[in-house]
User: Fold UDP-galactopyranose mutase from Anaeroplasma bactoclasticum.
Amino acid sequence: MDIYDYLIVGSGLYGSICAYELNKKGYTCLVIDKRNNIAGNIYTKNIEGINVHIYGAHIFHTSNKEVWDYINQFAVFNNYINSPVARYKNELYNLPFNMNTFTKIWPECFTPNDVKNKIEEEKSKFHIAEPKNLEEQAINLVGPTIYEKLIKGYTAKQWGRPCTELPPFIIKRLPVRFTFDNNYFNDRYQGIPIGGYTQIIKKMLDGIEVKLNTNFFDNRKEFETIAKNIIYTGPIDEFFEYKYGPLEYRTVKFETEVLNESNYQGNAVINYTDYEIPYTRIIEHKHFEFDTTSSKTVISKEYSVAWKLGDEPYYPINNDKNNELYLKYKNDADKLTNVHFGGRLGQYKYYDMDKVIIEALDYLKNI
Assistant:
């Protein structure tokens, strides 16, 4: 018996936008989530007065004014600019690769032409016509010095294997800037919601029935009968009971701790690029909102971990094997007239937050 017009599985950004917009149009919605909190991976929790990004740092950025105006309905954004720092052993470098980075790596270089000539000199000594792995490809692009200090260890930790064992296509290009500009993103609009992301989802879901600690698959038959339509934002392969085999991901482990000091590292994001340090980066959450008054701080160490079935899926591994597998699931999904698959897990594709908004709103145009 249909009680709702829409059952929405997952209260992350995609599912919550759908619920908000459908509710405005007069449709009845039930949102369920297997976690004990709303907001999916953009969930932020207040710890010691600091808004902590529980599932990893999320920095909103877009060049689409409509998207920027849309998200600003739900929160006031600050003017945070993502300017990460890389630590290689006892050396610190600005990211992305720019003149601040290069003049520190090569103190004899002062101008963009100096740096261009230096990189070309290094590349020419080690050029390989047909690179067989990621290491050879990266050296072809930027030379051995930048590769050794800023790419080799970090990339190996991210993928769980040496760069010599990774295919060259993973790095098609490496953005190199010949300006003194530490702004990681090129987008026109950028910032962090003052007060965290959870408030955004809370406002979207205001007045809509939400059930937490509720796993769709625990009562699948019941859930499939209580709504005319389903918007599903979980893993697409799980929906089809892994009939073609599981899609692969990389996952992330977080170690979050409260420290009795006011400023641990002086920046929100510091990447650790040498392989000997097991974590990929440390996030100091208070710097996302320019907090200079709290006597304590909260940091999260991030570890890139091999994924196995049952782990939290983070980053789709979109190689040929997995893409072909996904297309099999998508073919089955396209045959279902009352189920829509959306978001990162439903579409097996990594999305920045602005692209999630675009995808959700595009889908809703037809309803």
